[in-house]
Backbone:
């Protein structure tokens, strides 16, 4: 049973399908591991024991009858604490939402449950999802699997930790500026950022509704494909036959390679060379529209975040972590006309980007330019916090601004991820490419 905690979600699903794994025993194994883990309270905000067991028992009955609902029917997963859960508190890592209990499940959770996924509980996260570091002095800061003294990456910090520490087969998180990919990279996981609008955000606590996306954090690209299918209700992407021979990749030089720290840069260069040796064509590109889009970050993200939360925040600002409060309040300085003009400029940048990369199978860059920063210094050094947070989200934010699909893959070097940027609503193609890249990097 111990091996179950380290297996991929797809492997567990196949075990349930062939009768070698009982969903009830599987869920009991995960719940037992959670309850006995010395960092449980830093990873899970709430564990839904009764729901998990009821869902597992139903999955076991379906498996015995040969009526499984999906490849992940009976597989236990965790949910970031911004997905509403009927009758269970959903607080989004903030004291502002303490004791907020929704009356129904978020749409994505409802879809996944209808396909048989077992809900283990809700994982800790950065406050209101507005940080890429994962540090949260208000509720809890989950651990980084490679360095317990370092930040885990955010905002889907607990989602990543739940998988990395063997306390869930998959974590479901959100990504507004990198919040799935950063913690995936720092915890050696696969993280899929979906195109905005592909997965329903109904019933998920918002940050920036025009940029918010939902996606899985998991062990393999196959898991990511199955997780996406569970969130959308669509058929899983067929990954069979994925190969690198003849694929064309662009290495993005504009901004994405600036000031990258030594370890992520070495891991990136080595990964690109592996792809080249496997038969992929690698071409370096520069793209002025990336710089144009990134220049709009402060206007677009902060204005939308503050516009979404200003009334709740200003009613009780003393309840917030100071760094998060300050970041939100940057948005009140943005005039409405500037926000509208910024969106118009961003749409132009998106069109230019899509034309530039149309002939490529993916665009490559390091997922994060930095390594997981020290937690104690983040708490005591405001300048360090700001610098590391901005750097952690810099490369991932490119995908959010340009409206792309994207995925982060482990490189084999601890806490160093390789990001592949795909096309808008190009998840199927991206996942097939990622599967080939994954095989090359292993």
Residues:
């Amino acid at each position: 049973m111990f091996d179950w905690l380290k297996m991929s979600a797809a492997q567990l699903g196949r075990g349930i399908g062939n009768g070698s794994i009982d969903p009830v025993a599987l869920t009991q194994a995960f719940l037992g591991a959670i309850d006995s883990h010395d960092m449980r309270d830093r990873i899970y905000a709430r564990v839904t024991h009764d729901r998990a067991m009821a869902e597992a028992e139903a999955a076991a009955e379906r498996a015995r009858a040969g009526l499984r609902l999906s490849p992940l029917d009976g597989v236990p997963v965790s949910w970031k604490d911004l997905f509403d859960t009927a009758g269970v508190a959903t607080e989004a890592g903030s004291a502002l939402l303490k004791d907020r209990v929704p009356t129904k499940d978020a749409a994505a959770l409802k879809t996944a449950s209808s396909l048989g996924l077992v809900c283990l509980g809700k994982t800790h996260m950065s406050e209101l999802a507005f940080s890429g570091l994962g540090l949260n002095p208000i509720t809890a800061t989950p651990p980084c699997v490679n360095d317990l003294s370092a930040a885990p990456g955010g905002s889907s910090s607990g989602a990543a930790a739940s998988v990395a520490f063997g306390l869930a087969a998959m974590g479901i998180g959100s990504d507004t500026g990198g919040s799935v990919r950063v913690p995936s990279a720092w915890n050696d996981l696969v993280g899929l950022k979906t195109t905005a609008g592909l997965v329903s955000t109904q019933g998920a606590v918002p940050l920036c509704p025009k940029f918010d996306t939902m996606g899985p954090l998991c062990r393999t690209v196959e898991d990511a494909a199955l997780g996406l299918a569970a969130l959308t209700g669509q058929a899983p992407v067929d990954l069979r036959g994925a190969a690198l021979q003849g694929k064309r990749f662009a290495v993005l030089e504009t901004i994405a390679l600036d000031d990258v720290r030594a370890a992520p840069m070495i891991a990136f260069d080595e990964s690109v060379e592996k792809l080249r040796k496997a038969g992929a064509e690698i071409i370096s590109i520069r793209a002025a529209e990336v710089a144009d889009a990134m220049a709009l970050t402060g206007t677009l993200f902060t204005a939308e975040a503050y516009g979404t939360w200003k009334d709740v925040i200003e009613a009780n600002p003393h309840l917030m972590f100071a760094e998060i409060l300050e970041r939100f309040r940057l948005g009140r300085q943005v005039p409405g006309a500037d926000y509208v003009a910024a969106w118009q400029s961003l749409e132009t940048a998106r069109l230019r980007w899509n034309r530039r990369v149309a002939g490529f199978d993916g665009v490559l860059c390091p997922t994060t330019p930095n390594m997981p920063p020290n937690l104690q210094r983040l708490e005591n050094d405001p300048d360090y916090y700001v610098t590391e947070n901005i750097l952690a989200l810099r490369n991932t934010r490119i995908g959010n601004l340009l409206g792309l699909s994207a995925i982060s893959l482990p490189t084999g070097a601890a806490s160093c991820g390789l990001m592949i940027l795909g096309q808008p609503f190009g998840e199927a193609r991206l996942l097939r490419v990622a599967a080939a890249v994954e095989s090359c990097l292993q």
